[in-house]
Write a structure and sequence with these properties.
- The protein is an all-alpha fold.
- It has helices at 2-21, 24-27, 44-50, 53-71, 112-141.
- It contains 5 helices and no strands.
- Helix 1 crosses helix 5 (112-141).
- The longest helix has 30 residues, at 112-141.
Length: 171
């Protein structure tokens, strides 16, 4: 369950991010450039390719920090702990003023039954989001592969499964 929930959360963020990045508000021209080298009018995969490598490394470093923070819990999720639970971090460092989960305290009064139903809904939404983001990426890389999206998604000539394509190489 732990991996399924995490993959679902990433897919939900990716799917919504793809949709938002496709809007003229985000992909169009800006008065202030969001980062060095910004190019307006790119599709979401092309926007990722245009991000500087150091910005990508910052994103992956933050993900790694969150992953390691989730692994230090007692009890661990493989030994009876709650999958994908992050303990409260508010107050442990001065710059952290919110908790990762439920930053505004909306869910602290929910019953266990409602929380369990919410986790099942999250799993189902995550599964659907995985299908959605892979459909968008499939149509972008192989036009016509998803008949319902044919002609709606701009073609992408890169490889969305290689996040640092062309930016550096070990060899």
């Amino acid at each position: 369950r732990h991996a399924e929930i995490k993959h679902g959360r990433v897919a939900m963020a990716a799917f919504l991010g793809y949709l938002v990045q496709s809007t003229p508000l985000v992909s169009g021209p800006h008065k202030l450039l969001p980062y060095k080298g910004y190019e307006p009018g790119l599709s979401p995969p092309e926007q990722w390719d245009a991000i500087p490598v150091y910005a990508k490394l910052q994103i992956f470093t933050l993900i790694g920090m969150l992953e390691s923070y989730g692994e230090i819990l007692a009890p661990h999720y493989t030994k009876g702990g709650l999958p994908v639970y992050y303990p409260p971090i508010k107050g442990k460092r001065p710059e952290i003023v919110f908790n990762l989960y439920d930053p505004f305290g909306f869910f602290k009064f929910e019953t266990e039954e409602k929380k369990a139903r919410g986790r099942q809904v999250e799993i189902n939404n995550g599964r659907l989001a995985q299908i959605g983001i892979l459909s968008l990426l499939s149509e972008a890389t192989t036009p016509g592969s998803v008949p319902a999206l044919s002609g709606l998604i701009p073609a992408y000539s890169g490889n969305p499964m290689i996040p640092f394509e062309g930016q550096f190489s070990i060899f």
